[in-house]
């Protein structure tokens, strides 16, 4: 072996050694000096934009309020993607101690058995009164009489309208809890009286809204009481309530007062841009959009309940949003800290501030007594509406969410059916086609999970 | 030093030539082969081969809520996919998209490169403008185009309204959404394609054109008979890259249409991502990955087999 080769061999070994050392060295957790005596509580969340700032304020408030724990918030992207990350990292040292998981992943989280029900902590805690938390939100995240997760950012689907434009054209605003034909009337009048400059209404192609329309009509989508009395084996999207909802939209598309913004996040943004610039007068969306709609809106904002079919009473919609879950792969002390944080997040003052800055609803009844919310209502009386809608709904299995695994797939297929209906396809055919695919997916998923 | 190295190098080269025919390695060669290939083989097996075989394995199973393989399904996942009209439609739309993007990118790129290769005053400005999309990231491009396509405040809508033309629903009409994605992708790819083709066109010897002009060949004839054959290796390279790139298109679709409306832009890669990381169907997503690998391999093979023959290197 020549000397040159020997030298290059040595340097190669050195490089490899350095790389290997580097990998191992960076793998070691770096301890920050400030948190040395506190127990770190890693918190995964999916709040972006202004809601993220508001959430960080909650975390900072908790970290300042005590000296035992330190909550470390980590943004994880969209709700859907976060679920997969949470499930795949469970049991490793990167997994979170507490995490935010959205409404439709509730069944998945319960069945994963990766979490400790918050009920276990509530039972031992004398200071915390769960009765103070809105019942509709509580029932959504409970199973077998146990509170599985702490409801957190909770929204309601509501109907927004441009009150200034309605006033300008002398149109009577829609009533509280309107019917489909009430909305059609306002949309048509707006479109006609504005000389076709303003479209009357839009409904985003968003599975959540389709589910809410069926819920508000009192119709369960999945069998076994929407999954509340057993694992669902069948979903029926092709039902009279869904058909009525889509027919209502089609009627408005045909008469020209409806504008379709499509699906996805860009559709949501386009819709808000259209509404703020007075191009469309009515739209249905989560109450969590209120922040964006009050900040830069030159017009007066009107809000009313989610509409329901004519000739029947509204059943009340279910909540949207997410809850806080405690992972069971962490030590008892860490889990306790996670619970303390969730409890803090639901305290009246924090909830009041949270509602003001995000549009998500304050779930703690006592939050309504806080000055922040009283001031908010004095300035914007319409900000009260989503909370009233939440209080009006009597929890039943129809409006307590669908406990079905694979809701993400179901929602995607619902949206395809909506798109077909919006583009002029046969409504019943589109829905039964979606049913076929959803049920095939449920059958496969139940087989893979060993459910009978 | 020089004196001694030259003969040995020639010697070893001759040896190497001999070995290429016999395919037998002596112990020393084996040692060096292992030494030099070892590190990359190690990395490749950790990051490429293992995931590949793991994907193949998972594709034969159903996966539960936790993403763990539970029920052996043989080729069941493949059968479900290939018998699903949605998946077949997805294949069709991917094919259409890939071919349209490749054809448009290469032809528009060639046109622009040919224009910009003229020696005129201020041509540098145009060269910069045409290649500027190289510096734009996917997310910026998507947001920019979303503003243009916005149904109520978008640029296209404003123009249509001003000219009293019917408004095109770029993102909500299934057919137009496909074109919206194609236009955006072509726009994104154009900068790179343009730059590569421009470089290639400028390196064609001017003497060829001079000789052709003397012969009385028209500009058009010169373009087809001199420029195209001379830059054919680059054209081949650019079309292969664009084809493979557009097969893997993800960012723009995710940001602009999310696969909608009515699945019209739900291409294979995007569908795979959604099935795995939205829906958690890892078994099915793995079979989709295997199918996609086969398709891309097939196209690359076709391209090398047929296109390469016409390329003058």
Descriptive notes:
- The complex is a heterodimer of chains A (452) and B (313).
- Chain A is of the alpha/beta class and 452 residues long.
- Chain A folds into two domains: 38-154 and 320-382, D-Maltodextrin-Binding Protein, domain 2, CATH 3.40.190; 157-316 and 406-449, D-Maltodextrin-Binding Protein, domain 2 (3-Layer(aba) Sandwich), CATH 3.40.190.
- In chain A, 49% of the residues lie in helices and 13% in strands.
- Chain A has helices spanning 3-27, 50-65, 79-89, 106-112, 118-124, 135-140, 163-168, 180-193, 207-216, 223-226, 240-254, 264-276, 290-295, 332-345, 348-358, 371-379, 385-392, 407-422, 427-449; strands at 39-45, 69-75, 98-102, 115-116, 142-143, 146-147, 150-155, 157-162, 199-202, 280-286, 301-304, 320-327.
- Chain A is globular.
- Chain A starts with a helix and ends with a helix.
- Mean pLDDT of chain A is 91; it is low at 27-33.
- By secondary structure, chain B is mostly helical.
- Chain B has a single domain (83-310), classed as MetI-like (MetI-like fold).
- Chain B is built from 14 helices and two strands.
- Chain B has helices spanning 2-22, 27-58, 76-82, 85-116, 123-131, 138-149, 155-162, 174-202, 206-215, 219-230, 232-247, 251-256, 268-278, 282-307, and strands spanning 61-63, 69-72.
- In chain B, strands 1-2 form a two-stranded antiparallel ribbon.
- In chain B, strand 1 and strand 2 (69-72) form a beta hairpin.
- In chain B, helix 11 packs antiparallel against helix 14.
- In chain B, 31% of the residues are buried.
- Chain A binds chain B through residues 9, 16, 80-81, 83-84, 87-88, 90, 108, 111-112, 114, 199, 205, 259-267, 269-270, 273-274, 277, 279-280, 405-406, 408-409, 412, 415-416, 419-420, 422-423, 437, 441, 444-445, 447-450, and chain B through 35, 39, 62-67, 70-71, 80, 86, 146, 150-153, 169, 171-174, 177, 255-258, 260-263, 274, 276-281, 283.
């Amino acid at each position: 072996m020549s000397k040159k080769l020997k030298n290059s061999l040595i340097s190669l070994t050195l490089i490899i050694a350095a790389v290997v050392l580097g990998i191992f060295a960076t793998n070691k957790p770096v301890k920050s000096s400030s948190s040395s005596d506190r127990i770190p509580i890693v918190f995964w969340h999916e709040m972006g934009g202004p809601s993220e700032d508001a959430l960080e304020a909650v975390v900072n408030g908790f970290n300042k309020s005590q000296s035992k724990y330190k909550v470390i918030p980590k943004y994880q992207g969209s709700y859907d993607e976060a679920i997969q990350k949470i499930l795949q990292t469970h049991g490793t040292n990167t997994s979170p101690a507490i995490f935010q998981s959205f409404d439709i992943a509730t069944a998945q989280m319960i069945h994963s058995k990766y979490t400790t029900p918050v009920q276990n902590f509530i039972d031992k805690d004398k200071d915390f009164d769960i009765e103070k938390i809105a019942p509709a939100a509580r029932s959504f995240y409970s199973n077998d009489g146990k509170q599985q997760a702490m409801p957190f950012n909770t929204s309601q689907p509501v109907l927004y309208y441009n009150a200034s434009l309605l006033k300008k054209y002398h149109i009577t605003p829609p009533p509280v809890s309107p019917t489909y034909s009430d909305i059609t009337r306002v949309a048509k009048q707006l479109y006609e009286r504005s000389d076709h400059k303003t479209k009357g209404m839009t409904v985003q192609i968003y599975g959540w809204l389709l589910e809410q329309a069926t819920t508000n009509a009192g119709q369960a989508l999945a069998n076994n009481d929407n999954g509340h009395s057993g694992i669902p084996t069948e979903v029926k999207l092709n039902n009279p309530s869904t058909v009525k909802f889509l027919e209502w939209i089609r009627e408005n598309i045909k008469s020209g007062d409806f504008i379709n913004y499509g699906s996805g996040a860009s559709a949501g943004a386009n819709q808000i841009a259209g509404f703020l610039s007075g191009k469309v007068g009515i739209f249905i969306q989560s109450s969590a959009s209120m922040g964006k709609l009050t900040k830069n809106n030159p017009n007066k904002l009107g809000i009313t309940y989610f509409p329901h079919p004519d000739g029947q009473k509204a059943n009340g919609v279910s909540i949207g949003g997410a809850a806080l879950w405690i992972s069971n792969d962490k030590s008892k002390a860490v889990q306790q800290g996670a619970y303390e944080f969730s409890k803090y997040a639901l305290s009246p003052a924090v909830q009041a501030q949270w509602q003001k800055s995000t549009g998500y609803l304050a779930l703690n009844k006592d939050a309504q007594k806080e000055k922040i919310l009283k001031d908010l209502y004095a300035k914007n009386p319409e900000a009260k509406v989503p909370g009233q809608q939440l209080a009006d709904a009597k929890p039943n299995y129809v409006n307590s969410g669908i406990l079905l695994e694979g809701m993400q797939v179901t929602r995607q297929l619902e949206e395809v059916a909506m798109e077909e209906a919006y583009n002029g396809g046969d409504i019943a055919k589109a829905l039964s086609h979606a049913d076929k695919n959803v049920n095939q997916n449920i059958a496969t998923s139940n087989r893979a999970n060993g459910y009978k | 030093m020089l004196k001694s190295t030259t003969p040995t190098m020639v010697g070893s080269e001759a040896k190497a030539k001999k070995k290429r025919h016999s395919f037998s390695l002596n112990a020393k060669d084996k040692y060096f082969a292992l030494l030099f290939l070892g590190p990359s083989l190690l990395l490749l097996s950790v990051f490429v081969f293992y995931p590949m075989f793991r994907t193949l394995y998972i594709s034969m199973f159903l996966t539960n809520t936790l993403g763990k393989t539970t029920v052996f399904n043989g080729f069941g996942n493949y059968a479900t996919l290939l018998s699903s009209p949605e998946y077949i439609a997805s294949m069709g739309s991917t094919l259409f998209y890939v071919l349209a993007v490749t054809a448009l990118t290469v032809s528009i790129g060639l046109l622009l490169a040919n224009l910009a290769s003229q020696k005129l005053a201020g041509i540098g400005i145009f060269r910069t403008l045409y290649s500027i999309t190289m510096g734009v990231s996917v997310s910026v491009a998507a947001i920019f185009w979303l503003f243009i396509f916005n149904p109520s405040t978008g640029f296209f809508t404003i123009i249509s309204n001003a000219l009293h033309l019917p408004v095109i629903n770029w993102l909500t009409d299934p057919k137009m959404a496909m074109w919206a994605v194609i236009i955006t992708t072509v726009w994104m790819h154009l900068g790179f394609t343009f730059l590569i083709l421009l470089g290639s066109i400028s390196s064609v010897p001017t003497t060829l054109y001079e000789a052709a002009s003397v012969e009385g060949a028209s500009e058009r004839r010169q373009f087809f008979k001199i420029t195209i054959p001379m830059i054919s290796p680059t054209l081949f390279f650019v079309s292969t890259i664009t084809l493979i790139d557009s097969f893997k298109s993800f960012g723009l679709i995710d940001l602009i249409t999310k696969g909608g409306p009515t699945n019209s832009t739900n291409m294979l890669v995007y569908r795979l991502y959604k099935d795995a990381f939205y829906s958690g169907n890892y078994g099915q997503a793995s079979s989709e990955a295997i199918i996609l690998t086969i398709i891309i391999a097939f196209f690359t093979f076709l391209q090398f087999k047929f296109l390469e023959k016409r390329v003058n290197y």
